[in-house]
Amino acid sequence: MSKPHANVREGRSSRLIGVEALAILLALLFLSPFYFVLVNSVKSLGEILVDAASLPQKYLFENYSKVWDIIRFPRALWHSFEITAISVAGIVLVSSMAAYRIVRRPTRFNKALFFCFIASMTIPFQSVMLQLVRVTSLLELRGNLLGIVVCYLGFGLALSVVLFHGFIKGVPMEIEEAAVVDGCSPYGVFWRIVFPLLRPITVTVIILNTLWIWNDYLLPVLIIGSNKALTTIPLAVTRFFGQYTKQWDLALAGLAMSVTPIIVLFLLLQKHIVEGITSGSIKG
Asked: Where is the secretion signal located (predicted)?
């Protein structure tokens, strides 16, 4: 009688080993770009062109110091942080309040507004680039901080509203009704009761928009342009790519420096991401 059970256990363990092996292979596949960036960031340009996959014969850590000076990395880092922080904060505040209003007041206008948010996500950015440049020029929003923040706010609201909308629908109305009975104002209900409960989805919205805004190149080059007072890291790194020469050694060193803050942010928020996934599974 024990043989069938032993065979079942052996079958399950073999399947588990196969799944783990597949997961390891996928992890290595997704981590391979980091390997190429880190390894080639300490090589000479000649070594990169000869064999980009091999380990460096001589580690050239001065590539990082050259990038630091050439692109004025602290200034570019501050500009990227300033634009990202203000834009993400605005997206979180506006989208959470808009989604709460749409869920709790399902009028025809709010339903139509939510449909517009969903429909806007299907429009390719490339189809509105020319109109965006014309409108921002007419409103004198090009080349300044307000213009780039307004653009990120407009393009980032749709997905964030949809994410908050789905999460707020799972928040019990009884909690809000109890707060109203205790004399809490409508704004107090949202900021003191509802918004703290949105922490898991808020972290998700922050991470998604931070990754997008921090690494974005197309929108800054359209809105910021040649304004060196607001040059972000992606714009600064393009200095190493000319018409006839491409300094891959310095560009990869700059790329490695630029992704470090994002990795640190992800590690800091990893606990909240796991909590969000766990709470979502329990609610389901």
From this structure: none
